[in-house]
């Protein structure tokens, strides 16, 4: 159980981030200041559907991409 | 300008809509949302252009600051169909993943695929473009494919299930216009899916020329966004698109080497016996 209290270390948009234990994708998106419908999230190269954000926990070693829409041609 | 409702002008310029997959558009201009000075200017330019289909890009959120205003706060999805692109992708995997993320963001299947060869030319990589098209079609996407102005490439893309092909008039952002009109004309003869000239449009005559060739539409961004007066240029592009489309439908006269008088050659007054001094 000890590892449950250790910080999670992930790669978030290419940057190393330490997060509290049991952080979910929904928690992460909220902490970044975005609304769920404004972003899409990939965990280790796979899109995680918005409906699963609240229940999908992050784990050390995860590679997470959080993207949004910007101007483009 | 579109004629007033019920006028003769409206009657004679009636046109079929542009159909892209599940979407139907009255305007044949597709407009990008990059490079504007502000979201406000973006929204105004889109409105003036008359477009009903706008492209956007997918990018990582900025981790250094909290979310500010978002592009989608300024682009009314009831009014515009959002066409996400894979601009900046140089390999099949990242292009396909970008489409999957876009589908999650927007809840739609429509994507504009770009698999680029190198950052200097931004020309499409043909093999990567074919491979990504195949995979995206397999996944059920409605794929509009940015490609070079190669008619045989367009045929291959249509065979793979692309719902539209988007040959570049000239390199992205170059403003060189349609460099090879004959390649576009041949493409139009070889494929049934809509052909949309994408990239390289610098000014209104480029749009008009493309539409006069008979393409289904034109996609542009820099030509408006980087003009000295983007909103006025948006109006110029709108009018050029309509003018070119009407000219195509009306049918241009053949080119001749010699003159062909417009005024009657009969009934001219007599030539003076002696020149007047």
Can you tell me about this structure?
The complex is a heterodimer of chains A (73) and B (277). By secondary structure, chain A is mainly beta. Chain A contains one helix and five strands, in the order E-E-H-E-E-E. Chain A has one helix at 25-31, and strands at residues 8-12, 15-19, 40-43, 46-48, 63-71. Chain B is globular, with a radius of gyration of 22 Å. Chain B is α/β, with parallel strands linked by helices and 277 residues long. The mean pLDDT of chain B is 94. Chain B has a single domain (17-250), classed as TIM Barrel, CATH 3.20.20. At the A-B interface, strand 3 and strand 5 of A face strand 4 and helix 3 of B. Strand 5 (63-71) of chain A pairs antiparallel with strand 4 (53-60) of chain B, so a sheet runs across the interface.
Outline of the structure:
Chain A has 73 residues and is mostly beta strands. Helices cover 10% and strands 36% of the residues of chain A. Chain B has a single domain (17-250), classed as TIM Barrel (Alpha-Beta Barrel).
List the main descriptive attributes of the protein structure presented here.
heterodimer; A: 73 residues; mainly beta; Ubiquitin-like (UB roll); five-stranded mixed beta sheet; 5 strands; 10% helix; B: 277 residues; TIM Barrel; three-stranded parallel beta sheet; 16% strand
Distance between the termini of chain A: 50 Å
Unreliable residue runs of chain A: none
Overall geometry of chain B = globular
CATH topology of chain A: Ubiquitin-like (UB roll)
Number of continuous helical runs of chain B: 9
Rounded mean pLDDT of chain A is 92
Main sheet summary of chain A? 5 strands, mixed
**Termini separation of chain B (Å)?**
50 Å
> What string, H for helix and E for strand, traces the elements of chain A in order?
EEHEEE
**Whole-number count of domains of chain B:** 1
